[in-house]
């Protein structure tokens, strides 16, 4: 039960605050899981994600209410996917392939993961 290696080399990557778990046995990355999704090991170590993900699938929740919000499945460069809320773009205009990053001010350690789009929507109403 020793926690080693924290505190020195990780500082440069702490900016996003997004961390994930990597299995010590098979190397599979996962997010907010107690067991490895591949080998069921509970021997996971926490690593910092680069934080920039890509939208794989996107849906609008409560589409016809004023509380419409986006819910997207996002793939992160470390290899895990997670369902997140996307802001910074109208919910129905988030597109698969959009690059996203942790929203500024979002607390990623608990609760809902909120990301914002990196690129602006190219929305041309006149076409
Ligand atoms: Zn594993």
TrEMBL record:
The record's annotation in InterPro entries points to: ChsH2_Znr (IPR022002), NA-bd_OB-fold (IPR012340), Thioester_dehydratase-like (IPR052513)
Q: Which residues form a coiled coil?
A: none
Q: Which Pfam families match?
A: zf-ChsH2 (PF12172)
Determine the domain of life of the protein's source: Bacteria
Domain ChsH2 rubredoxin-like zinc ribbon: start-end pairs:
18-44
Q: Which PANTHER family does its entry note?
A: BLR3430 PROTEIN
Protein name per UniProt: ChsH2 rubredoxin-like zinc ribbon domain-containing protein
Query: What are the leading ranks of the lineage?
Result: Bacteria, Bacillati, Actinomycetota, Actinomycetes, Kitasatosporales
């Amino acid at each position: 039960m020793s926690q080693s290696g924290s505190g020195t080399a990780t500082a440069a990557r702490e900016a996003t605050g997004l961390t994930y778990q990597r299995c010590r046995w098979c190397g599979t990355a996962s997010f907010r899981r107690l067991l490895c999704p591949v080998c069921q090991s509970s021997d996971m170590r926490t690593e910092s994600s680069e934080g920039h993900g890509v939208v794989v699938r996107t849906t609008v929740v409560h589409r016809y209410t004023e509380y419409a919000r986006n819910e997207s499945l996002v793939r992160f460069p470390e290899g895990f996917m997670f369902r997140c809320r996307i802001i910074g773009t109208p919910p129905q205009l988030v597109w698969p392939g959009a690059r996203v990053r942790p929203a500024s001010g979002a607390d990623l350690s608990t609760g809902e993961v909120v990301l914002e789009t990196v690129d602006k929507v190219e929305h041309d109403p006149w076409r």
